[in-house]
Amino acid sequence: MQPFKYSRAVDVGTATTKNAANPSAKFLAGGTNIIDLMKEDVEQPNELIDISNIKLTEVKKIGTGIGNGGITIGGLGKNTDAANHPLIKQNFPLLTQAILAGASAQIRNMATNGGNLNQRTRCPYFYEVAMPCNKRQPGTGCSALKGVNKLHAIFGWSDSCVAVHPSDMCVALAALDAVVKVQGVSGSRTIPFADYHRLPGTTPEKDNNLNTGELITAIEIPANNFAAKSYYLKVRDRSSYAFALISVAAALETVGTEIKQARIALGGVAHKPWRATEAEKFLVGKTSGEALFREAASIAMKDAKPLEDNLYKVELSSKAIVRALLQAMSGGQHS
Ligand code: SF4
Question: Separation of 216 CA from ligand 1 center, angstroms?
Answer without folding.
Answer: 25
